[in-house]
Amino acid sequence: MWDVNKPLKLAALVFVTSLWGKSVSGQQISTIALTSGGEQREYLLYVPEQYDGSPLPLVFSFHGSGGVPRDQINTSEFDTLADQHGFFVAYPAGAFTNSVSERSWNANVEEGVDDVQFTRDMITDIAARVNVDRSRIYTSGFSGGARMSSRLACELSDVLAAAAPVAGLQYPIGCIPERAIPLIGFHAEDDSINHYDLTEGGRPYWRMGVETALDEWRQVNDCSLKNAASEISDVVTSYTWSDCSDDAEIVFYHADTGGHTWPGSSYPGSNMDISASELIWDFFSRHTLDKN
User: Fold this and answer.
1) CATH number, domain containing residue 226
2) 88: exposed, middle or buried (C-beta count within 10 Å: 0-12, 13-18, 19+)?
3) Which residues span the domain enclosing 234?
4) CB 95 within 8 A of CB 103
5) How many domains in the chain?
6) Which whole number is the average pLDDT over 197-207?
7) Residue 262: how many other CB atoms lie within 10 Å
């Protein structure tokens, strides 16, 4: 088994053997500390069972506001998919205090920690430990982590191959990405936390409705108004914009019900008609960043 501690000995590593009753090899997951922007930060790194030193994709999975990386492992179960398909997963720990909670992300470009730089630093740190395919680095996240992934999709469009915000798709105000970036999103219309439509009394950080954000991404990716709609179930419909610049397609899953959850997860009330994690990886696997 590959030793992630060997390439870089300066950062602290703590190996874990069990997470929430789920057996995980001590050599597969590690808690890694690093300094970013003068702040001490942490993330979990998952290495798939079959890793043999060959270059593999890297998926970031950002937890929701107030959460911790372990929550996101349970929610997404990307570790299981990583073993099946062969990719690394990084679960960062939030350190920003927003208007509602601590342990969140600086998704709205406010004073405080620089989570864009933190992501760049994690990529550098991870690439020093394992063999990352730099053309296949992706970001995903839930709620506040989805808002952060929305910002990263814009500001790190030169680094990321695709993005997947779940229950928190936004378009960063004033952002102009360097390139059109493929995007897959998920949102339930009955989400009581990040409202589908912008309404009075919503959380201060929630700056636009989901359809407004989608339209902004459609325009910046130079997609036409035409989309392909498909009814997945009685309550779930997918929409695909495929005629975009540089094949930067946009796929969006609209659910009538499901609340503020990750579709297909074990969280109570989750919509079980689809698996967001499986759909995300299928989408990611279709997109590679052209480094030329």
Assistant:
1) 3.40.50.1820
2) buried
3) 13-284
4) yes
5) 1
6) 84
7) 28
